[in-house]
Each structure stands twice: as structure tokens, then as C-alpha cells.
Specification:
six-stranded antiparallel beta sheet; hydrolase; Aminopeptidase i, Domain 2; globular; protease; alpha/beta
């Protein structure tokens, strides 16, 4: 396959993954499918694990977070770890969302994460997430729901009625963000609609809707943009792009080294959950790995962690041509110019000079360009799972990511060449014999 054909195939797989992953639960299910096709075997946290050297496994938690790992043929001396997260800012349904207002059925929403709200107006919205149902036989079952057609919209208010709309008018999530679902006098039974959608998608006879975690999403598919197809526009690039890249690199590795990929949930709301980076998911799995193949006891576990390295992958802010003054003049990453090392003196990113030097060396070995990002000294800085994972485990960590525009918008933009760059660098990382300097 030519390089051009390989790049096109990679972009097509990425676009397909993004389109089929409108929620963290869908993203995790799609990652599982990809891993199983490559020979990864499932584990359950409630079972006793019998792990074998040289084998490949994965485990999920809450159906929205995932850890996949390959074990070396010998004892577990070190781990090459890559981390990302499955969640993105969104509008999630309230438990009792139905609102009838001026003859319209609307659904009340909660804002999940630091969403950029203005781009949600005038979009064709579908609905997706996880629903717990009671089947006709009385048993509870969790199902994924993806209503792909545009069933809702949040119409803008006409400029004639709000002359200040272009002057930074604040948006009220409680009173102005409820999508319109249906016109009619009385509110239809939302449970009935959910049952219909589930039966259509799964062919499952549902007796009752017990509970749900559902959110709206833009049904416009991902697309290549630009005269030369230089850009990729899609929802949820932050951070499904890193999830895709991490798994692609893991599957491209040669399998000689101990390697692990973790995709946490709830990063956009602080990571404090059972399946978030501040929770025990990764530590639980690592302790079980070490007990099976590494040095026994707490000292052996600490030795494993200190011999390992975590690369936290989360997208970086590309310098925007219309807002170039929002960047430090010496630290403006460009699209299609390679992965970005993210640095913050206040530890909002976990990068230090040692981990950065290692990543520079990996990019050199992979023949990949590399960039650096530091936020302006007079602006606040976001964070990632990197500092949280480093704090929880003590593992040496670096924060990197591909550059993008419009972070936390309903539709974000990245470069089409950058995913391949980072996959190459991470593949070198997974295959690397040594994680030390000197």
C-alpha cells in the first residue's frame, strides 16, 4: 500500500470511529471491537485473573472507561503507558427532562464539562448514550442508544429581537438551551419514545425504562475540509482523537515490551470518579498485573511504577490565525506540524525536562516533527489526566497532544496529517527498549 493510500485508510478509520462514537459508552464499545479483532481478550474485574506472559488483554469499567495491555514474554520489568479520555463536553438530559412550553415539547439539559455553548444553536441534534431497561422477562439490561436522525434543535433568537447578540451576550443553560423535540399540545411519554428507538435499534422488547444517561450530539458527520483536505472537522475530537491514536499505536507495536493504553471517563468534569483518572481504576489494574508477572509486594509495585512512563495524550491549542494574540508568540503550535509537548510551571501539565527529553528522542527516532505549547503568562491554563495520574501513581509523565482549533465546541478542527505523526511517535514509544536517559 502506498503512503498516500495508507494515510487515506487511516483517515477513513478515524472518521468512521468518530461518527460511530457519539457518547463515551459508544466510544468504549468501538475501541473494544477494534481490540478484540486484534486478539485482545476480555477480563472482568470481579473475576480472579490468570494472566500469561506474552498475552494481550483488556478490561472496562462503567462501560465508559477502558484499559488494554500487552504483556512481555518475560517478567514485567517496566510499562510503556499512554492515557486519554473518552468523554467530551455535551448537553446531557436531566432525569425528568420533559418540558411543554408554548406548544413545544422540549427536553431539559445539564451542561457536561466546559462546553462552548454558542455553537450548539441551529444544529441538527441526535440523542445517544446508555439506557437501563427492564425486559419483558423482568430482567434489567443496559443498552446503548444512538438516535442518528435529527430529532431536536436549539433555534437561535433572531437578531431583530436581540441587537446585542453579537456583543458577547451571556447564555443561560437553564432557560435558553433546552432543545425543541416535538410540536404538540401535551407532552408525549418520553419513555414510549425511548422504547420505540431501542426496539428499532436492537429489536428488544422493553417493558420499562428504568434509568438513562443520554446526551444530544450534532449528527453532521466528520469531514475533510480545505482545498487540499488539510483539516478534519468533527465533534468530540477532544479527546476521541487521542483514544483512536493510542489504540492504533498499541496495535502497531511489535509486542516485545509491556505496554498499556488507558482511556478514562469524566476528565471534562474533574476526573473524580471510579473510572476517572483520579479514581482507582488504573492503580487497581497495575497492582494485579504486578502481582501476576512482576516483583511481589509493595516495593515491587513501586519499582515497576518508577521504571515506567506515562504519556498523557490530550489535544493542544493550535494558534488561530484570527486570534493569534491569544498565544505566547514563541509557542503557537500549527496544524499538521507534529505532536505538541505541553508545559506548565504550575503543574497543570505533568511534563518535566526529563520526560520531555525522552519524547523529543522518540520523535527523532520516528522522524516526526515536534512542537511545544505554553499558555500566555497572563491567562489561565487547562489541565489533563496527566498531572492527576502522576499524582495518584507517582509515575513519570509527559503531556502531549495533536493541535486543534475550537476546543470544546460542538464541532472542532484538527489537521489530517497530525494523527499519523503521533501514532508513529507512540509506536516507537511502545517498542522502545529503554525508558532511561544516559
Amino acid at each position: 500500500m502506498s503512503d498516500h493510500a495508507a494515510d487515506k485508510a487511516l483517515e477513513d478509520r478515524l472518521i468512521d470511529f468518530l461518527q460511530r462514537s457519539p457518547s463515551p459508552w459508544h466510544a468504549t464499545a468501538n475501541l473494544v471491537t477494534r481490540l478484540e479483532a486484534a486478539g485482545y481478550r476480555p477480563l472482568k474485574e470481579t473475576d480472579s485473573w490468570k494472566l500469561s506472559a506474552g498475552e494481550k488483554y483488556y478490561v472496562t469499567r462503567n462501560d465508559s472507561a477502558l484499559i488494554a495491555f500487552q504483556l512481555p514474554a518475560s517478567s514485567l520489568e517496566t510499562l510503556r503507558m499512554v492515557g486519554a479520555h473518552t468523554d467530551s463536553p455535551a448537553l446531557r438530559l436531566k432525569p425528568q427532562p420533559a418540558i411543554v412550553n408554548k406548544g413545544w415539547l422540549q427536553l431539559g439539559v445539564q451542561v457536561y464539562g466546559g462546553a462552548l455553548l454558542a455553537p450548539w444553536f441551529d444544529r441538527d441534534l441526535g440523542l445517544a448514550g446508555r439506557v437501563h431497561v427492564r425486559r419483558a422477562d423482568g430482567k434489567l439490561q443496559a443498552v446503548l442508544l444512538n438516535v442518528r436522525e435529527p430529532i431536536a434543535i436549539i433555534p437561535s433568537l433572531a437578531i431583530h429581537m436581540d441587537r446585542e447578540a453579537n456583543n458577547g451576550r451571556p447564555l443561560n443553560a437553564q432557560t435558553q438551551m433546552a432543545p425543541l423535540l416535538m410540536q404538540g399540545g401535551d407532552a408525549p411519554d418520553l419513555d414510549r419514545l425511548l422504547k420505540q428507538w431501542i426496539e428499532r435499534e436492537h429489536g428488544l422488547e422493553v417493558a420499562d425504562i428504568v434509568d438513562f444517561e443520554l446526551g444530544f450530539y450534532d449528527v453532521q458527520p466528520p469531514s475533510r475540509v480545505g482545498v487540499g483536505g488539510e483539516m478534519l472537522a468533527s465533534a468530540r475530537l477532544d479527546n476521541l482523537l487521542s483514544c483512536f491514536i493510542g489504540v492504533e499505536a498499541l496495535l502497531a507495536s511489535d509486542g516485545r515490551q509491556g505496554a498499556l493504553f488507558v482511556a478514562n471517563d469524566h476528565e471534562e468534569v474533574g476526573s473524580a470518579s471510579a473510572c476517572g483518572a483520579q479514581g482507582p481504576f488504573l492503580a487497581d489494574v497495575l497492582r494485579r498485573l504486578n502481582a501476576a508477572l512482576g516483583e511481589a509486594g509493595d516495593e515491587g509495585f513501586v519499582r515497576l511504577i518508577q521504571r515506567s512512563l506515562m504519556i498523557s495524550c490530550d489535544n493542544a491549542h493550535a494558534v488561530h490565525p484570527n486570534f493569534a494574540d491569544k498565544h505566547d508568540a514563541n509557542h503557537g503550535p500549527a496544524l499538521n506540524a507534529g505532536p505538541v509537548i505541553k508545559v506548565n510551571a504550575s503543574q497543570r501539565y505533568a511534563t518535566n525536562s526529563t520526560t520531555a527529553a525522552l519524547f523529543h528522542d522518540m520523535c527523532r527516532e520516528a522522524d516526526v516533527p515536534v512542537q511545544q505549547f505554553v499558555t500566555r503568562a497572563d491567562m489561565g491554563c487547562g489541565s489533563t489526566i496527566g498531572p492527576i495520574t502522576a499524582t495518584e501513581l507517582g509515575v513519570p509523565t509527559i503531556d502531549v497532544g495533536v493541535p486543534q482549533f475550537g476546543m470544546h465546541s460542538i464541532r472542532e478542527t484538527a489537521g489530517t496529517r497530525d494523527p499519523a505523526y503521533l501514532i508513529r511517535a507512540l509506536t516507537v514509544f511502545f517498542n522502545r527498549d529503554s525508558l532511561s536517559i544516559g
